[in-house]
Input
Amino acid sequence: MKRILISVALVLVSQLAAAQTQTPAGRQNLAALRTVAEQFLKTETAGLPGEVSVKVGTIDPRTALAACPVPEAFLQPGARAWGKTTVGIRCSAPSNWTLFVQAQVNVKAEYVAAALPLAQGQPIEQGQLVLVKGDIAAMPNGIVTDMAQAIGRTPTVSLAAGTPLRLDSLRSRPVVQQGQAVRLVSNGNGFSVSGEGKAIGNAGEGQVVQVRTAGGSVVSGTAKAGGIVEVAF
Output
């Protein structure tokens, strides 16, 4: 009899615990919101290289929100979907509320680092680079993940061996150099004009460069391979 009473008591305790964890009618299930945040971050980071792992923080169980049929996840302006981040979740109908959830997104991938010291202004060669595996989500934006993005470019500052390369610290290989004779091209709706000039400065592919024309005037255009500068009129 005593053993039966103990078994009944354990069943009642288990049922009570389950009842306490159930979401009351009309209230939003908080676990579902964490799933919404997780799926949102996985979608946002789907295009990143390497292995992505997402961990969504807990939501205070005392949080009481009206049930929402279609909660929408979002990021605040300027926020990243990786590293330590915050995901907003909002509901517009039938009730209007917004909740913010902390999350940690790690991205293990290969990135490019200097295999030996790189001198400022010197073109980078493949033998000077090495691939390193790490969490690129913990690094600044613009980390180079493909050696082709760095080969031929020049560092804007000297870099020590082991330094991860960033696109904003590399200058493109010049396609137009100071003093070089260039061809000015302008294309529009139904017309095409070309002329000659001399570049006043250096510029990589897609960068703006100033050119002095044969008549002595100075115009600005976009540098292209082959000594071409596109000018918009």
Notes: The helical segments are 2-21, 30-44. Residues 1-21 have pLDDT under 50 and may be disordered. Residues 86 and 102 are 5 Å apart (CA to CA).
